[in-house]
């Protein structure tokens, strides 16, 4: 039940923030919304309410490492998207995020 | 681009250009990432699951669609802007970590969302001001 709700609400928030990003101009400004806490907002709310604030706090601690990985990925991603285009570049950006996030998890959180 | 009005604006007419399929694609991606965060949390603990709350869930679909409609240059501009949002995402997570045990959960998450918006915007405006001062924003 909780997983289904998280998926449903997370999807809705991503869709809403993406629509907001379409409306904003110029694109550099709209890009801020491309890194909105769309998944985090609803998920942290649901998890903390259903499993308690301490569980939500531990998820937030994991998210700090994930967000730092996101910062790293966007710095590298600028070059990746310029070279490889939107689809390949952003998939490579996600791969960079995964490597940095898992590395950060292994070093800092485990 | 020479002033704050040129740096940030909205064009609601563009909402009409969004196709249902594009929205469905974004919904599916957001749902999949949320599900992944939940499953990883169950299997490996909440800190591991929390990593995925900061997964770049909007970017792949957004950049692909922008490139298709407006070209690669605009996709790169959007990606550059996402750096400021990502910095705000760190602030969002830190606010949640610090406040969630002391405030109501809903208040904490709303406060964190506000902190994300303010910090992202401040970083963006500072960057634009620097671009103009250095002559690159003209």
List the helices and strands and how they pair.
The complex is a heterodimer of chains A (110) and B (138).
Chain A: H1 2-23, E1 24-25, H2 27-34, H3 38-51, H4 53-109
Helix pairs in contact in A: 1-2, 1-3, 3-4
Chain B: H1 4-7, E1 9-10, H2 20-44, H3 46-51, H4 59-70, H5 72-99, H6 105-133
Helix pairs in contact in B: 4-5, 5-6
Mean of pLDDT of chain B: 91
Strand content of chain A: under 5%
Molecular shape of chain A = globular
**Could you say which overall geometry of chain B the principal axes of the C-alpha atoms support?**
globular
Q: Specify the number of helices of chain B.
A: 6
Structural class of chain B: mainly alpha
Report on the structure:
The complex is a heterodimer of chains A (110) and B (138). Chain A has 110 residues and is mainly alpha-helical. Chain A folds into two domains: 51 residues, no CATH class; 57 residues, no CATH class. Chain A has four helices and one strand. In chain A, helix 1 packs antiparallel against helix 3. Chain B has 138 residues and is mainly α. Chain B has a domain of 57 residues. Chain B has six helices and one strand; from the N terminus they run αβααααα. Chain B starts with a helix and ends in a 5-residue tail after the last helix. The model of chain B has no long low-confidence stretch (mean pLDDT 91). Chains A and B meet through helix 1, strand 1, helix 2, helix 3 and helix 4 of A and strand 1, helix 2, helix 3, helix 4 and helix 5 of B.
Give the gist of this structure.
The complex is a heterodimer of chains A (110) and B (138). Chain A is mainly α and 110 residues long.
From the structure above, extract its key features.
heterodimer; A: 110 residues; mainly alpha; 2 domains; 4 helices; 92% helix; 2% strand; globular; B: 138 residues; 75% helix; 1% strand
